[in-house]
Each structure stands twice: as structure tokens, then as C-alpha cells.
## 1
Amino acid sequence: MSGRRDFLSMPAPENYVAGLGRGATGFTTRSDLGPAREGPSEEQMKEMLAKRAASLGQAAPSAYGVTEKKEEDEDEDRFQDPDNEVGLFSSGMNYDKDDDEADRIYQDVDEKMDKRRRARREAREQKERDEYERNNPKIQLQFADLKRALGSVSEEEWAALPEVGDMTGKAKRAREARMANSRSYAVPDSVIQAASQSGQLETSISTDSDGTMTNFASIGAAQKSALQVRLDSAANNPGTQTTTSTTSGTATSVDPRGYITALDKKQAMGEELPVEDINRARVLLESAVKTNVHNGPGYVALARLEEVAGKIHTAKKIIQQGCQMCPKSIVVWEEAIRLNRENLHNAKVIAASGIKLNPKAIKLWMAAIDLEQTPDARKKVARQALDHNPQSVELWKILINDTDDIERVKLLFAKATETVKLSEELWISYARVSGPEEAQQILNAARKAIPTSWAIWVHACRLQEEMGRVNLCDKIMERAVKALIKENAMPKREEWITQAEVCEEENDIVTAGSIVKATIGWGLDENDDRRDVWLEDAKSTSARGHHEVARAILAHTVSIFPYSTTVWHASADLEKHHGSTEALLSVLERAANACPHSESLWLLYAREMWQAGDAEGARKVLGRSFEQLPGNENLYTRAVDFEVDAENYAQARTFLQIARESAATDRIFMKSAVLERQLGAYEEAIDICNQGLQTWPGSWKLHAIKGQIYESLSKLKEAQEVYSIGTRAAPKAPVLYILLSRIQERQGAIVKARSTLDRGRQQNPKNAELLCEAVRLERRQNNINAAQKIMAAALQECPTSGLLWAEKIMHLETRTQRKPRALEAIKKVEKDPQLFIVVARIFWSERRLDKAATWFTKAVVLDPDYGDGWVWYYKFLEQHGTEEKKAEVLSKAAMAEPKHGEIWQSVAKDPKNFRKGVEEVLRIAAAKAE
């Protein structure tokens, strides 16, 4: 056993490496005892590893215990990096021109497809955002109306608001305070003596016989005050740069440029800075200047401060020091010139010194020019400035503006454009002061000098318009577009529209039209919705007051889409509101010829012709429309309306007779029966209704008119029979059930009336009119509980019906609950004119007249066709409005020509009000409204 331990003292075998079997590698360092020896070589290591593997019966490793990779590993590594393919896919590394062209084609296709669907996608996304915001309103939107109401609070009301106090535990705190004040303690004399001497920190040193004292307390207070100033400055300017003094170790935080601006604002507002602020600012700025003696804006700020403080002499000294310490600072020299401006000689000397040190400073040259009093002296200085700065457009403009001789001005412009060839302003100004022919040559030279300038092309087009050569404007703009595209300097389509609007403002109408014609399609593909885009451009441009540009856009749109009725209607609408009658009729004539089968264009043409006072022309238009659209009932009814307005009833009856024979529809028979009823021929009206019902037994309007005729003749039994037959022939017509129930109610058959409405609700589920009539039936019978039950069920079926909510708020709620119910209804229904009218009436009852007028206006703007909105608004104005406002509402209602509304229809369709205008019907309806 003892002999086996000798291996510890034995030398290690040759090339022995400890832990080699575990994968370790050998190394030697100079710290080893003896001379450093070289470790085993790579071949020796491999040999040893191979022997060990053979003894263990394993495969030999390649090197240092790492086995060789198999083919599968190589195949797997081949596909690890898709950008570094090898083998079969190594062709992916060879990216040639064909691949690049294919990528570009695919990219263009993707961009076009995305552009085609962009408008619809954006509209859909906007709709989804609006839906989300509507379902999840922000808190600030929920209280927006309350915030707006704060604007009506007067200053006296604000001042009268009581202070909000904390009433929580007030009595308890007061009791504790009294108890605390009532306590007393015996204070020792030492405390009293120390308190009396606490504020007397004085130490004196006798220097002579007169007893002079040194107060160290005042010195400490001064140091504390200076420290407080710096702390306050740091707190007030957390974002400014801090300049640290390397010598004193102090730091100041100041923004000299910002302080200059603040001083200017104070001076402009006529305010005087407090002495404390001036002293504090002086400390800061002096520190800034001392820590950085080459800080030009610091000197300027300090000089401005002294100027504000009234120490102009000190300000001059400071700015003089700034000029010495910052000779290259332009702002310092400008401030020095300004401070010495009252003494022109000194100011000129300062300007000369500054220019000598900064000959390229254009601002200093301009300040020196301003110091001169005569034009000759100004021109002399300007020439000297141009000698040093020949590329300065500002200096050339000053020199030219000071020159009176036009020929001399032209020479200066020629020299300026030759020196500064890339200045559009100089070239265009040169062309303006020259004659027409010479201006053309100048603009041609300018176009060659600046091929990327669109302003030069526009001015050339305006020049041709001023010369009367309007036929060349389109050609010039076409050449301009081609040239700018070639130079890759084509502006966006929106920028061209803006430039066209500028030309319209300067009365260059033809140029504006040429710009629109040449550039309105830039950036739009033929597959895009160009028509909609151009219509939107015309609408927005017209809204900004540039009607000529809008007219040019629509004219170009019409030339591209001549068979689009939408474009023709937009063009006619523009001429109607912002053009002349002749232009409107001309547009409609072209529209009718381009779209002869458009019913709406023929009707609009005939109507505008009739309103223009040309009755014979309107009849001719209708005659032409009959040729293009034979048997069209709308054209016949429009012809009847014209003849009725002209009180030519015989001709109107003739038209209706022809229509019943050639273009028979239930509407024609209904129109004939209504006319006979209005003229008092009740028997003829009933006969026409019977004839129509034989062909169209399901026409509920014929049943309704026939029953109303019997009602007007006080034949309630016959009317009831007609309505009953109508409900069976047209079960999906809610109006017939309502008329039948009212007849039964007038006859006292309340149970039958309820049954009729129930039958109508079964045939027409979730119908707001029938549900509301059922509620009103119970309310008229003073059965409020039943009415409320029916209303609750009705709102479950139709939660977004403005009619039901209006009925509930105004007739089934107490006065105090109306406003909360109205708020709840608006949240569910959002925009409904009936609810707006209800809210306005609530404010009206509360005598909040401004709010009521606002909501009435919202209602008529939201739906001008809703006649009841105009009725209630006019009724409100009759009590609280001026004559001018009432006249305005009457005129707007006449333009809107409302057709719907319960009160409105009951008055407008009454035979007693036959041939009465909108204004007269509005007055009658307002008197009837309750």
C-alpha cells in the first residue's frame, strides 16, 4: 500500500493534461515552476483522444471532444437562415434586374389595390370609431352642455357664489381649540430670557474710539437673501441651461433670449416691472455675463433690463462692453445700434464698426441702411452691402425699392437676376415692371434658370390672361405640368387648388380655371373614385367662398363624366346658390341634352324655368320631357302643379285625364281625387277614388282620401265603412287603422277603437305611430295608468322612436321629470328633430329663452323637411322674437318647403288652405299648435 502512494511524488507522464478524460485542455503559464513548456500539439491531442475512445469502444472525436457533424445536421443547418440559402436554393442569392422589376410590379399593384379601397376602408373605420365613441362617450362629452351653460353666468353671479367650507367636525374642532387656548403653563424665567434674546444676534468689534460696530447678522441675512434669489430662479426655470462658475463654485439658471422676449412683452403691454423683479433679474443676468463673458444674448438681456429700469446710460455701457467681448455676435451690434439711435452719428459709427468685423452680416447692413435719411445715402450703403453680399435678395429689394426711375429699376432687376438666378421673387418682380413682350422673354429666361419653379409658370399664364390671350392659358398650364413632372417638382393636387383660389382672389379667373383643368387629376388613377373626390373638392372650395374655382372643378368633372346626373345636379346647385339664373338654365339645358332619360333633371329644369317667370318655357320643357319619358307620372304631376299654380284648373284636369288614360297609376288617381276635393267637387272625387280602387284595391291612400271626403261631408258611417274595407285590403297601412279608430272614438265606441288599434299592431308590429295612437287614446279618456303601461311596452318595442319619447316627456311626465327623461331620450335616440323640439319647449317653459332658441335652431337645421319644427319655432318667435327674426324664419321655411309633421300636414292638406303658401300655412299651424 505504501508503494502505491509514490505516484504523488513521481513526475507526470509526457504530454499529461489533468482532466483530459473529462474534456479539459492543457495550458501552461509563466507562473509554473521552471521554464515554461509548450503544451501538446493539436495532432497529439487528437491521437490521445482517439486512443481513449478506442479503449472505451466509442467513435473517435474530430478534435477536443467535439464529434463530427452528420449529414442530417448539415441539411438542417442549410435551412436555418432563409437569406443565406445554399445548395438547391442557392439561386436566391443571385438578385438580378428581372427580380427587381417583378418586385416593383407587385408593389405597384399592391399600392393601386390599396388606393382603390382606401376611401371605403377609411369610411368603415371612421364609422366604427364613431360607433365606439357613441357607445362609450367620454365624461367631458357627457357634461359638455353643462360646461357651455357656465358661459351664461355673469360676473355678479360668480362673485355671489358662497365659499365652500369644511363642515366635517367643525364643532368638535372649535371645542378643542377653545380648550387648547384655555390651558396655561408656568414658564421658567430662563425660557423667557432666551426668547427675548433670540432675535438679537449681534457681535461687535471695537475698531476705534468712535465705537463703530460691525453687524454680522446683516451680512448673514444678505447671504441668505442672495441664496434665496438663486433658489427661486432655479425653481422658476427648471428647463433652462445652468452655467456654473469654475472659480466661485456658484451656479445660475437663466435664459437670456427668453428674458429678452419677456421684457419686450412687458414693454408692449405698458407694464412696469417691480423693483424686486428688476433686482432679482439683474443678479441673475450679471452672474450669467460674468460666468460666460462671450455670451452675447446675456449682454443684450442685461442692457434691456437696465433700459426698462430707466438707466439708459448703464445700458449703453453694458452693450458697449458686449461689443468688445462678443465682436462676432450680430444681436449685440443690433442692440447697440438701437440703443444709440437717438444720436445718429454714434449709431452710424457703431454700425460701421460692427460691419467692419462682420461684413457678411446682412442684418447689420440693413440696420445701417435704416440709419440713412436720404434715398441717395441709402442706395450708397446698399451698394456697399451688395459688394460684400451679392447673393442677398433682401439687399437687392431695398436698393430697388429706393430707386424711382423705372428704367434704372429694370437695370437693377437685370443685374439682380443675373447675380441671384435662383430667386423666383426677383424674376417675377422683374416681369411685372416690364412690358408684355419683354415680360415673356424674362419669364422664359426665369423658367430656364429655375426649371423646378411652378410660380413662374403660373405668372406666365396670368400674363397671357392680362394680355387678352386667354386661349393660350390652357396650353401654358399643360406645358407647365409636363415640365414639372419631368423635373420631379410637381406639387400636390391640393396645393394647385390653393394656388387657383389665390388667382381667383386676384381676379385671374381664366388662370384659375386653367390650373384646375390641368392639375385636378394629378395623383388620381382612372380606376379611383375621381368623381366623388372632385365633387368633394368643389364642395369644400365653394364653402371657402371660391365659387369660380368650384365652377371650374365641376366643369372639368362634367367633361369627364358627361352622363352622371349627380355631377349635373351639383353644377346646377352651385349656379342656383352662387350664380345667375341664365347660367343655371344653361347648365340645366346641357344636362337635359346629356341625360335625356333623367327624370330628376327634367323636373328640376321645368321647375327653375317656372320660378324664373317663364311659364311657356316650362311647358315646353315638360313637352320635351314627355317625348323622352312617355307615361312618366312624375312629369304629369309636375305639369298639373304648374297649371294649378297658374289657376288653370281646366288644363290641370285635362292633364290628369290624359295621365289616367296613358300612364295610369294609383298616384295619378290619388292626385286627381285630391284636386277635385280641393275644388269642391266631392262626387267627382269619390268616383275617381272608386275607379282607382277597382284597379288598385290595395292603395291605402285612395281609401284614406275617400274616407276623408265622407268625413268632410259628415257621413261618419260611410267613412267608417271605407276605412274598415281599407284595413282589410291594405293591412300593412297603419294610417288606416288610426283613422278608423278616431272615427270609432268620435262615435263613442272606445272599445272598438282599442280593438282596431290592437288589430293594427298585430299586423304592423313595432310601429311607433300605432303605439303612440294607443297611448293618446287612453290619455284622451283620462286613463293615465293604462297610457303609461302602453307607453312602457311601446318603448320596449321601439326604444329609438322620437315620437314615443316626445309623447312620454310632454304628456306622461311631471314638469320636474321632463328634463331627465329628455336627457335619457337623447342618449338613446341621438339626433331626432322631435326630441330637439321637446327640449326647446322645456327650456321655453323654464324661461331660458336663449337655450330654447338654440334647440329650435338645431331642430330645423337637422331636418328642414320636418314642418312641426318650423311651426314651434315660429310660435316661440311670435312671443319672444323680433320682427327681423320672424321674417328670416319665414323665408327659410319657404326655401325648405317642409312636407312632414303632424301639425304641418293637418294644416297644409286641409282643403280650406288650398293654394296657400308656405308662410301662410306656417302662421296658421303656429296658431293651432298646443
Note: The longest strand covers residues 242-244.
## 2
Amino acid sequence: MVMDPHGGPENGTVRAYLLHRAKPHLPPWLVWGAAGVAGALGHWRWPDSAAAGVGLTLTSVALAGGTWLAGKAASTQRRIHSAITVAAGSAWVTAACLAGPTAGPIDDLYLMGGPALALSWNVRVVLRHNTEGLVASSDGGLLAKVGLARAQIGAAKVEPNRVTAPLALEPGEQTNEDVAKALARIASALDLPRSAVRYTPDPSSERRGDLVIVPEDMLAEVVEWEGPSNLGGSIADPLVLGRYDDGAPLVIWLPGDPDAGRNSTHVLVAGGTGSGKGDTALNLLTEVLSRRDVIVWFSDPKAFQDFAPLRPGLDWAAEGGTQTEILVAAVEAAIPARTRWLGAHGYRQWVPEAAQVQNDAAHSCRSDGTACGCAGMPFLVAWFEEAANTLRNMGDDAFTGIAQEARSAGISLIVSLQRPSYDQMSTSTRASLPSVIALGCDPRDEGFSLPDEVLAAGAHPGAWGNRRPGYCYAVSPGIPEDRYPSPGRTRRFTLRAVPVMERLAAWAQHNGASADPVTAGAASSVAGRAYTGRTAPGEERTALTVVDDEGDDMHHGGLLVDPEDAHIDPEEELPDAQEGDDAPIFGQETGHKPSPEEARRLFASALAEFESNGLMIIGPKDFMDWCDRHHLSRSWVSLRLKEAAEEGRLEATNTTGRWRIVPTATAA
């Protein structure tokens, strides 16, 4: 038996318990009693004072107003309750001080209204405690099972196929990192796939965030591409690629928007074999080509195997190798030219107005402030498909300069490859690609595609591999950050899409933008005849003649000899032997050695021949056939290359042993 200090059995324990339970409910009653004492003392001090009446009235108004302002951070219900209580109490004290606490109905109001207000606050305390208990237990013990005991789940926001619940962790004991580690266990407890449970930390707190649960995978149904989402719109409008797992559209933006505070971006499209990277690229390219104020320069080492129906709509199509080297050099040349034009016309970044004729005096390049009427500059998308091939040929930093500088010039770089690891792409290039569309991959490659914080929030492309083509995560400016770990799926392209793509390419030929003089001039200054711009409707690109092993023209009806030998008369006598003709083998130091004047003429004609054929990036290996025809040695060619570079006819590239031909007009 427990004895209290006064000798009664358990009296001390019961009294302490009751006092402990009553403490939260005592303050309103103490205030009620204090108000009565204040009214009696006030009447004794100021029984009939007009000045006291004015002062007390002003004090009551100020106190009520101050309570309302102080409760700004509280809920509306609590704010109103507090203001009413203070106003009623201060009004009663004022009346009691002036008329007396027992005058008229003042004492009755005190005895009935005071307890009513005190009880209302007691009820509020009880309801608040019960609500907290319900919130703490609303997870049904789920958090305790997954190692997050004492964490509290708030009122959940229920949307179609999406539940978002605020989560508050135990202070000093748990962090947002603990939730990220527990996501797989939460998915297991709810019998859902790992990708259906995500956690978005609160940027201002290390123990708060939102737990997002998507109970049904709406991506299981394949949706076929039926056409672009906004034919004739601006490239500044969102590009629709598919949908998220809760049915919301999956969109990205390429140009920036100064009003929305969104920066221009480059995009990395990454995914393993069979992950649906080709369909994802088609979704993005068809959206781009359907806009009125953009041109596309496209490199595809696979000879446009997937993109052939769209090729007529491209402003420049390169098939890898030397053609891609020229395209890269053209983009590098276009960056300063376009930046200079934008700056001269008062644009800090590319906006849709820059693609229109410059009839606004606010965007004039003239010093007198009048409208200049310059042709507009469309947005430029430089796309490198199967970029691993280009990176192997040109080095892992082939795109570094473009990635770091192109955004300010109204150029967006699209790089597509299977594995964006650091042994293929330089860290500088990867860091300069702010956006990524990450498809299924090897689990070990997840960190190459997505930022660590997105992976920690629940993104897991390694779980798909190549088993779910088109499933992806999108990280890009303009997309809410809580969407980053949400899986989406792009639309599928089938044979039924081919006629639609062909019509889209024809629309782009008739209605799409053409390269502006500044961009076209920069490209031509580097590429020469290799850059022709988009072909007009009905115009065919120049095709190369293919000759089989027997020397026959594969298109038939052509010459049965090499084109360079067509002028030779078979009946003409062979020329007399010259010194060095006994060793015409390429690579040997002996061979025909022309005079200096003849050497310059021969080499100039070779460069002109390469330039006319659009071969603007050359090296010694490109002269092998030419040297065989003219019986010249390799050392002779290397010497001529250096001389041509000194004369300004060639420029060194980033690749050792490779030179870029400076077009004749530019060199002059």
C-alpha cells in the first residue's frame, strides 16, 4: 500500500494524478478569475472616471486587434477563437471598472459567459490531443514496421491514383535519409513495386517531407504515338513526351523563360539496349519538328535507321564520321555569331520574339534606335544520336565547349547514348547537361544518369532494365522537383506512325523555320558546301554513286569506269617514265616529287576537290587514294598540310592529325 505524506492510503498518488491531468485545463479558469478581480479593483480605483473609460476602451480595442495580428501564423479557427475570447474578456473588464462588477447584468455575464469561454478552450485542448493521437496512429503501425517508429503522418491529400502524406520524423533521432533507406520496406509492406513509393524532402527541414504513394501503375497500358501535341506552336511551349504513372502529362521545355525564371537546357537521353530510347527520341524529335520557330541539326551514325521519315524536315542531316565532325565545328562557329546577334538586338537569352522579323525598336541593332527589320533567328537544336560513336572518334570532350556555351546562343544540345559513364563522356560535358531522360538501365549505371538526390527520393531505373520499354524519369528545368522521382512512359512508335511522320516532315518543309543568315553564314564558313540547309519540297539530296567490286554502277546506266578516269583516252600512249615512278607505293619516302609550284597546284586542287564533295575535315588517310593517283608519298602530304595551315587554308581540330578545310571564300 502506498502512503502519502499525510498518512492516507494512495491519497498522494491520486491527488498528483488529478493535478497532472487538470493542469492543461486550468489556464482558462485562472484567466476568468483574474478578470473578475481586475474588474473589482478597477471599479474601486476609477468608479466614475471618464478618462479611465476612454483609456480602458482603447486598451480593449488594441488588445483585441493585437491578438488578431499575433495569430496570423495560426489556423483561421484558432485565430478567430482567440480574438473573440480577448474581445469579450476586455469588454467585460471595462464595463465592470466603470459601472461596477455587480451592476445590472454584468455579474450575470461574468458567471455565465466566463465559464462558457473557459470550457470552449478546454474542449479545444481535448480535441487537439485526440487528433494528434489519431495522426500518430493513422499509419496502422506501418512506420514502426519499417524502422520509423515515432514518426508522424499528417492528413493525406488524396488525388486520382496518387496519395501524398506529410511526414514528420522524430526530432534529433531521425532524418530524411532514414526515410529514403526505408522506401523499399514501405513498398513491401504495402505490396507495391519499389517505384510506386517516393519521398520528397522539405528543402527547409531535415526531418519533414512528403511521402507519395501511387497505388496503380497507369503506365502498364501502351499508348501509341498519333501525332504531335501542338502543331505550329512555338518551341518555347512544353514538349509532350508521354505521361506519368498517375496520368499527368510528361513534358519538358528546351528554351528558357525569363518570366518564369526557367533556364534554357541541354538534354541527355540515356538508356540501355531495348529500353525504348529510340521511341523516346522520336517523341522528342517529332515535338520539336512540329514547332514553327526551330531548326534541327541532326547527327546519326546509324544512317537514320529510325529517323528516315523525318529526315526531310531536318535543316542538316549528318551520318556520323567526318560529317559529324563538320557539324560539331559548325555548331561551335555558330555559338559566338548567334550570341553576338542576340546581344546586338537586346536579348539576354533566346525568346520566341527573337525568331520574328525585328520590327520592334526595343530590339533594334541600329544606333539611332529605329527598328532594324533584321531577319529573325530561330531556335537551334543540335542533336547527336548514338553519341558514343562520335565521342570515340572525336574524344570524350567533343561536346564540352558546346554544352558550356550554347545555351546563351539559343542552342539546345541533345545527346543520346546508352551508357553516359565517365569513361565515354567527360565530367565537364556531363555536368553541363542539366536535363536527363533516364530510361531502363543496368542497376550499376543509375548514378551516371540521375542525380543522387533523385535516386534517394525513390527513382530506380535499374529495376526496369529492358523489360519495360519507354519507362523513364525526367529531370529538367520547369518540372516540379517532386516529379523527378515519378516514373513516366513515352509513347510507342509503330509502322502506323510512319505515314504521320512523313506528313510531319513535309509540313516542316513548307511551314517550318529556315536558318537565319547569321546561323547559315557561320555554318557555311566552316562546312562550305557540306551545309545546304533544308531541302525544298520535291528537291532530292545529292546521292553518291555506288560501284560494286566489278566496277559496275549499282544504279545502272552509269559509266563502267571510275569518275576520275572518265577523261582518259584508252587509245592514247602512256606518258614517259619519270624519276620516282618505280616506287609509287603510298607511305614510302620515295615517289614522284613535283616542283614546289606544281606541289602547291596539286594540293590546292585536292583541297578544292574535297571541299566540293563536302569533305571538310581531313587527315593524311583521306589522301591515300589521291596520292596513289598522283604517285606522291605520305611525308609529302604531311608537309603540305602544315603549309596549308600556315597559309590559313586549314585549321587544326581537337583531334590530333585532323584538319578542317577553311572554305575558299572565308580563307580569301
Note: Residues 142-213 form a domain with the Gyrase A; domain 2 fold (CATH 3.30.1360).
## 3
Amino acid sequence: MKALIVDDERHVREAIRLLVDWKAYGIESILEAQDAQTAIDIIEKERPQIIFTDMMMPGKLGTELLAWIQQHAPRTKTIVISGHDDFDFVRKTVMYGGIDYILKPIDPIQLNEAVSKAVASRKQEDEGSKQEQRKSIEINQLKPVYWNKMLTHLLDDPSYYSSIAETLHTEFGLPTGDLPCRVAVLATDTINPAIRSKFAGSEDLLYFSLLNICNEFVRKHNQGVAFRHNHGDIVVILWKQTEKGAALLDTMNNGIQRALGSRLEFGVGSERMLPAGFKQSYNEAILVLRQRNMRVVRPRIRCFDPNENPRQSTVHLSEYEDRLRFAIRSGKANPIKEAVQQWINQVEAMKYINIEQLELWGHEYGVIKARWLKELFGDSPVTLSLPSESAFFIVPLDQDGCLSLKQWGVELEEGLLHLSQLWVEHKRQDEHIIFDIVKYVDSHYADDLTLQNIAERFFLSREYISRKFKQQFQENLSDYIERIRMDKAKLLLLNPQYRIVQIADLVGYKDEKYFSKVFKKIEGVSPNEYRKHSK
């Protein structure tokens, strides 16, 4: 905080400097002026928050300085220090917003009380100003969100128009009553990667910037408004000079290029009556974008043509599913590269590929990949770091916005190779876990072994262990445990020192009769008969 002392007498300025506890009030800078004009020059340059002024000075009087301060620095707090007990001076001090009128010689207590009052008043005003600024910022931040919701609602339900028509007129200058409108949609799926990189991956910040640029042009002469539809498309409604809509969008695109370094694509619907035709014009703009041929360089502004009905040959990814699956199971890069190249060659032969075709392939890939994961990994409890699906769901484009088949093939190849490597590693881990279970059973056959016990020990599900054990050894785990126990029992039966009940306990059976029953079932004879035969 800064303070300015204005007095033509030097000793008075020095007295004020000595009497005020500046540090206690947070005042770091104390300035001085010996007349009103010098004070005005300092005020314009330094903007002090607190001013002490005399009334009788050469040149302009203190009352003139107070009047100037009230007009040009109204938030500045003033304290008058005068040697004249003049009612008119006091009255004008109050009239011009002075905090106090102190007579010379200066009373230190009165002076510090006046300073304290002035500082507190200024801080209170500053805090109020900050709150107003914060409130204004919050309102400005919420406004776009509010209008995005309002206009999205209008697009989805034209009957909503009657309830917000007056507000649209006040906010955007939209003429009242039915009028022609035209809708344009900005294609966000072909935005140049260089533009996205400028916003460090923040899609919201990118869209916010694009909306500001679009509105800068359409709202300049109340020609329309741009908004974000359901956190997705950027939609531009035009309601003035709609026949020149394409030209306005072209000018807008020039502004986007100047600001972001690249032009974008717009699909434009036909002229319809607002509000009934709003959604129809929007759907036409969307259709224009979905029918774009992603194989060629396209016009940046493309208007709806009802006679346009492009035909395309459909190639299904499912036709290549087996080749890709076998390549993944090979665990090697070359088979995967060859299988992917076969697919890319097929796509290369297609001269027309639109967004609908790309979405169809993306859907097919999702279904196929779900089958692969079930087939390769089953219900594996191991958390897998699966490759991203960007190879089909975010199709790579070149700098002109055209489908880059070369890059697409590279990304798809990398994703499938990653999946293949995961499967090989998973298979190796599966085998390792199953052999660990075998080792555990071989050394703990005499314990109370159950499938549940083993599952808990190895943190696996019973179903997973049963299936993997059967796949690896072609027998059930329970049968394997019984077979191991019977092999151990046969060795013990060769020693006549052990009674049958002892042998049963040593191989994990607490019930002698049950042990004998299982032994006979597996070996075809009872334990006693086996012992006699062995002798």
C-alpha cells in the first residue's frame, strides 16, 4: 500500500512521517509533494491509496485537490491536516469524501486513528471489489455453459423456443417471430493434430477457443450464435443473411487459421424456418459430414445437397478375423504384419470411405476383439495391460485431413503385436502357476487339500484352476491329488511296520474305511490285498 503526503511545509511532511506507524498499517511506500499540481502528477503515476493534504498551499488549494481526487481517483482515502479551523474547509472535506480533518499541531493519537480508519475503509472496498470481480468471472464462466444447455434443449425440442425467444432476442439480437435459419456443424474429428497439440490434450480448452472464435464472427452483427451441443459438436446457428452462410463460414475459417494455424471443415444444412426447421437443418449438416470421402482432400465448407447419395462397396473386417487371430496366436511380428497388410490392401482399393464406414469397422473390431480376449485370456484374474483401440476408433489422418492408410496399418500392427505378446506372456504365466500348484500338491498331499484351499493359497478362482489344470494335464485336480496319495500309500504298504490306519493318516485320510474305499476304486484291490500281493 502507498501513501502520499502533500504539504508546502517540509517540517510538517517530516512530522507526519515520524508520527504514523506505517508498518502496522501495511504501508510500504511514503511519497511527498509540496503542492497540489505535483501531487496530481504523482497520483496519476503511482496511484497511492492514502493521501494526507494541507488546505493552504501555493497554486491550487487543498479543496481543489480534493475535488480532483474525487473525480479521478475516487477510491483513494484522504485525510486533511490544516492549520485553519475553517468551517468551509471542513464542509468541503466531508463533501469530497475525506476521512478526517486534523488541526495543526498534529495530535499523534488522532492522526493514527484517522490512518487506521482510512486503511480499514480501503481494504473493505478492495475486498468488495475482489468479490465483485470473482462474481463477474464466475458469471462469465457459467454463461457459455448455460447457453450450451439452452440451445441444446432448443435443438432437441423446438417447442422450447417460445419460452426463451425473448431472452434470445435480448442476449443475441435474434429477431422475434418465425424466421429462416441455417445450421452449420464444425467437424471436430478432422482437426489437425498440430492444433490439438497446442492445447496439451485438453479438449475442453480447444473447444472453448473455437467457440470464442466462431462467436466473434457471428455475434458481431447479431447474425447468429455458436454453442457446444451435448459436450460434442460445435454448432453455429445463422439467422441473418442465411444465403451468404457459406461465405461467412469461410471468413470465420480464415480467423481460425490465423489464430490456430489451420482451417477446419464445416457441414452446412439447408435454410429452414426457426424453430421448427432447426433440428432438420442440423441433421442435414451432420449428414454432410458423415458422407465426406475420407480418402480425398475436401472443400472446407460443404453444403447439404439432397440429390447426393454416394454409393460405396462394403468391406467387412470380420472377413479377416481368422487371419488376424492366427497371426496373433503365432506370437511373431511377421505373420501379424502380413495379415494387417492384407487388410490395408483391401481398404486401399476402396476409393470412397466415409465416417459411417469407419464407424462400422470400429464396431466390428470391438466385437472381434471381445471374442479374442475371451478366447485367449478367458476369465483370467490377472490384470492385463491391453493395447488401446485407437487403431480403429481414432483413425489417423494426414495434414490434409485424409485417411492415412500407412499410419493406420502401423498403429493396427502395433496394437495386435502388443496383444500377441501379452497372450504369450499370459500363457507362460498360466503354465508356471499350474506347475507351482503341482509342486505344492506333491509336497503337501498329506494335508487337508481341497480345491478351495488351493484357490485361496494361490489367489485364484476354483473354476480357473480346474479349467487350466485340466487343459495342461488332461485330468482333474482332485483325481491328480488322489493318484499322488495312492502312489505314496502303495510305497508305505510295502513296509509291514505300518498299519493301514497309519498309512491312511500319512497320505491325508482321517477315515481308514474311506481310504480303503478310494484305494480299491483306483487300484482294483483293497490295501490289505495289495500288501499280500506285493509280498
Note: Residues 157-303 form a domain with the Alpha-Beta Plaits fold (CATH 3.30.70.270).
